[in-house]
Design brief:
Length: about 425
């Protein structure tokens, strides 16, 4: 397949900075100024940080707002199959032509000086959002919070911090309080913050930062809560109780993500019908997603095929819990991970659930962990493991009656979604 015009622009933008990640806001401020400061012209902003659950939470918020008749822009990363997924306008994903035009406008304004790929593409998203007819803008942090390229809006309408855990230590710090401090960097003076349930060390840092800024917090377990009750979801806050179906996204962790989404929607005055839609209508690919059609599904035959992009220890626990909710079948994993991740931490919760792990390298990803290394890490936590050249090869080696979970990386999930059409 030949490269599109957008692909060619994105390839050029990748070469503007020697590092993929270089956390500072100086380059953002420079380019935004050259573009006329589009971040000042956005519809009211909902800014989301956290280690796990950002994407699912924003998908539920978006579903609830749209069900209530609001027009919503949303920015998320990384994309899975196509870059366009990162920039969602009120009428759908940004078009090929609009994306290419916006990227080229940012490229011209940047003038060839160093800027990271994420920074310049975030500027493009902000420019597109500023020109859209929208009621709300949802910005999902890419990495951390304090120095993330999305952290350029002086006064968002709300900030949200989903559960914080250990991840990206090379950029955010080695301890939970350090990482929580980076996430808390999105809090703003006087701006309400919705805080999901946190470990004590993380919550204390977030609360201290909020107090220093005068940012009022709405805390899970204190000001609102969400839990599963007899096969349904209960949510309550000072405005009363909501009795809802379990989230369409699978797993106990999605009940907590739904709680943060509902706390946000209630703060924005969304109707009970909108809250119901948030829980029941949200879709978010590669989060315990069952694949039902496509070439890989056809190849799977009677095998039950699932896909998840989680990649840290907290995600491993969440995936293991979600798998336990499904009707019992022999579980086989097809796993590929990046060399920056805690492979053992992710796989350990799954070791008691799976009969076998088939390790693959992530196609086209320079930072992939080699399949042999993933297999060794799996064996170290008690999983029987072998390697396979491709996901398709692994799938064909799995018994026909099995449940298959493809997991370990959003980059692997993206490759699978592209292969599956």
């Amino acid at each position: 397949m030949s490269a599109s015009g957008t692909d060619l622009v994105l390839q050029r933008l990748m070469s503007l900075h020697p590092k993929i990640i270089d956390l500072t806001l100086d380059r953002m401020w420079r380019l935004l100024e050259a573009l006329g400061n589009p971040q000042r012209d956005l519809a009211p902003v909902i800014h989301i940080a956290g280690t796990n659950g950002k994407g699912s939470t924003q998908a539920m918020i978006r579903s609830g707002l749209q069900a209530d008749g609001h027009r919503v822009c949303a920015y998320t990363s990384p994309h899975l199959a196509r870059f366009h997924e990162r920039i969602r306008l009120p009428d759908g994903l940004i078009s090929e032509q609009a994306l290419m035009d916006t990227l080229e406008e940012c490229e011209r304004a940047n003038g060839g000086v160093p800027i990271t790929y994420f920074e310049i593409t975030t500027c493009a998203a902000l420019l597109a959002f500023a020109r859209a007819d929208a009621d709300y803008t949802i910005l999902e942090v890419g990495l951390g919070g304090r120095l993330d390229a999305t952290n350029v809006v002086d006064t968002p309408r709300l900030t949200i911090i989903t559960p914080v855990s250990i991840d990206h230590q090379q950029y955010l710090g080695d301890t939970l309080p350090q990482i929580a401090g980076e996430k808390a960097g999105i809090l703003k003076p006087g701006v309400p913050g919705i805080i999901a349930r946190q470990q004590d060390e993380a919550r204390e840092v977030i609360e201290a930062r909020a107090q220093a800024l005068g940012a009022p917090l709405s805390l899970a377990g204190q000001d609102w809560d969400a839990y599963e009750d007899q096969g349904r979801m209960a949510y309550f806050d000072e405005d009363g109780l909501l009795d809802l179906p379990l989230p369409s996204l699978l797993g106990a962790h999605q009940v907590q993500n739904a709680g943060a989404a509902l706390a946000t929607l209630r703060a924005l005055g969304v109707s009970e019908a909108g809250c119901h839609a948030a829980v029941t209508q949200a879709e978010w690919p590669a989060r315990m997603q069952r694949l039902r059609t496509g070439p890989l599904v056809a190849m799977a035959g009677e095998r039950d095929l699932w896909l998840d992009g989680g990649h840290n220890s907290a995600a491993g626990l969440a995936v293991a819990e979600a798998i336990g909710r499904l009707p019992e079948r022999p579980l086989h994993l097809i796993c590929g991970m990046l060399n920056t991740k805690d492979v053992g931490g992710f796989l350990r919760p799954l070791a008691t659930k799976a009969q076998h792990l088939h390790a693959v390298s992530i196609p086209g990803e320079a930072a992939t962990l080699r399949a042999e290394q993933t297999a060794e890490a799996a064996q170290a936590v008690g999983l029987t493991a072998t390697t396979a050249a491709t996901v398709a090869d692994a799938l064909q080696a799995i018994p026909a009656n099995a449940r298959v979970l493809i997991c370990g990386s959003l980059y692997l999930a993206g490759a699978v979604l592209r292969e599956n059409g």
